[in-house]
Amino acid sequence: MTHRAARCDTGNVGMARRKLVYEGKAKILYEGPEPGTYVQYFKDDATAFNAEKKAVIEGKGVLNNRLSEYFMNGLTQIGVPTHFIKRLNMREQLIRQVEIIPLEVIVRNFAAGSMAKRLGLAEGMALPRPIVEFSYKDDALGDPLVPEEYIAAFGWATQQEMDDIVSMALRVNDFMSGVMYGVGIKLIDFKIEIGRVWDNEFPRLVVADEISPDSCRLWDIETGKKLDKDVFRQDLGDLADAYTEVAKRLGVLPTNVTHAPTKPTLIN
Ligand code: TMP
After folding, report:
1. Does the beta carbon of 190 lie inside 6 Å of ligand 1?
2. Nearest ligand 1 atom, CA 216
3. CA of 191 relative to ligand 1 center, distance in Å
4. Entry pTM
5. Does residue 119 share a domain with residue 203?
6. Same domain, yes or no: 22 and 70
7. Considering its fold, how many domains does the chain have in total?
8. Across all residues in the chain, what is the average pLDDT?
């Protein structure tokens, strides 16, 4: 068994004082300290197949909090706006309130999951180019895949917003693929959510929710070993061990949080 992040966790001490805004399957949103902010709390709960399969994976929330912080900070640095403000503690981060667009934006580089099944493709087959697709966020319907035509017609996002979302998703893909490639991991696919923030009457799009191994497919480049939520979906082993491996490679384990490059040392 490898290092477990949750051992030194303080749990949700102090939570009772905060006003709960929304509880999802893996996270809870509380009112933030300032207007226009929320506190996003990462739970240890894992669900799959629209919550038909459930478990509590000790330490998952702590790892996803760190990993999402790492990816969101990286996106900010390359000029992709996100909802992330700062990490507050082991399980919580301060985020901007956004109006969530009710879409799961999925980018795929290699065939896997529902795409492999739908089209009868071999898992891991390289796609001719990255493919962006949208699912309508509705648990009761099982988040059905929807064409852009539906999105515009039902007013979930405007055509201009969809174009912006596709370019943002592709930038996130380039960033995430590069970061992962650098630590020997292939980014098969991922899901992001996009929110609107209002600057006066003008909406601006930001990456929201989380980016973590819960919402990506990550395969070791050498061995093909899965290091994402498929480990839980497919009963392939210990999920926290897989996420710890990703965090370790990126240098973002809770005990080793400095991932800033050290300055070169002059050798006389
Ligand atoms: P899929 O192949 O099952 O459609 O999943 C595509 C990507 O989206 C994959 O990286 C896993 C992620 N995902 C979520 O983040 N949440 C979900 O509810 C589902 C179904 C997939």
Report:
1. yes
2. 10
3. 6
4. 0.90
5. yes
6. yes
7. 2
8. 92
